[in-house]
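Lab manual, section 2.4: Encoding a predicted structure.

Procedure: take the sequence of the chain (289 residues), apply the prediction step described in section 2.3, and record the output as structure tokens. A sample record is shown.
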Amino acid sequence: MHLARQILFLCAGNTCRSPMAAALFAALCAARGDFHAVSAGLAATPGQPAAAHMQIVAAEKGLNISAHESRQADVEALRAADCVVCLSADIVRAAARFAAPERLYLLGGGISDPYGGDQDAYRACAAQMEAALPSLLRALQADCVIRAMTEADLPAVLALEQVGFGQEAWSAALFRSAIALPGARYYVAARAGEILGFAGTQTAADATSLDTVAIHPAYQRQGLAHALLARAEADAVTQGGRALWLEVREGNTAARRLYEVRGYKEVNRRRAYYAHPTEDAILMTLEVR
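Recorded output:
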């Protein structure tokens, strides 16, 4: 019998964001049957109903969360979940004490807490979650293992680097020096032992640079980039990162769209930054909350 993967949406009080996120995700996956959405709070008072404003928003979207009762997240629940979807950076840092890093996911760079706000604040919160949930689904659909890059991975990584970047491909020496830098985290996406993609970041103080991302052309548009970015973003937060930034070719519309749907914003450009061919670099950043 096929068992649905449990997706735990986690916030503080489990009365506003997480029950609505779970309901929205359940609706998004209603026809699939392979995910089971639940919610909890790290500081929840058990048995509380969903906030009245959020119940109204849910009803406006054809959803019913009136039967929801808040529950406290415990260590067992955090460790049992296939994915712990955290609604803020602080929740990621707290959950990281108990949940494996590969199971943590920061939704949309963090969702604004509408607690104490008016009805429109709750609508804005729900809209933010609704926009971010498709990226979560894509990452979950990737069907791959995201793990730390090792020396043994370098031949496959270098071959993929050459396919993806041609004349601008990094050398083995450059990869080794980058991986050895303080605050560096490099990952591979593997399926059945085959490396299909990789990503690398470096965190200094509270800023994390996304230095490289590549997916084998035959496996693009399968959620692998979302899965790699999700791991990189969650790890950056646990390292103390408050913002992630990156550079991307102006003409790389697919990559720019990927970053945009994950919440990255264009903030600047560097003229003629890239060669082969000469092209501007677009600077994008994700401010985590």
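Check your result against the sample. The chain has two domains: 5-140, 145-287.
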